[in-house]
Amino acid sequence: MSRTLSVAEAKSSFSAVVDRVASERDRVIISRRGKPLAALIPLEELEELERLRAAQGAESLAAVAGQWEGFEEIVPFVEDAYASRQRTAGRSVSLE
């Protein structure tokens, strides 16, 4: 769940806002004059976003799935999906 705070609201309760983001995995959007400027997110979400950005150059879902630490078990399912698509489409489907 995310909520929006003005810069002034975030500044006046910064410590509490950071605690809530860290402990409750809340997301906070910081705005000025109603315009969103920045966001505070849990560190784990930032790390996941960075892994996804690093994998952005990969051309296949299997390559992206391989970038997610702890999700190696998904790769066989992705490969099965590619194989099934290849069988039903009657054409080669690349995993690269």
Tell me what you see in this structure.
There is one protein chain. This protein folds into two domains: 2-41, 3-Layer(aba) Sandwich (YefM-like fold), CATH 3.40.1620; 44-89, no CATH class. The chain has helices at 7-12, 14-24, 43-54, 61-67, 75-89; strands spanning 2-6, 27-32, 35-40. The protein is α+β, with helices and mostly antiparallel strands. The chain has five helices and three strands; from the N terminus they run βααββααα. 53% of the residues lie in helices and 18% in strands. Strands 1-2-3 form a three-stranded mixed β-sheet.
Would you spell out the secondary-structure blueprint of this structure?
Layout: E1 2-6, H1 7-12, H2 14-24, E2 27-32, E3 35-40, H3 43-54, H4 61-67, H5 75-89
Parallel strand pairs: 1-2
Antiparallel strand pairs: 2-3
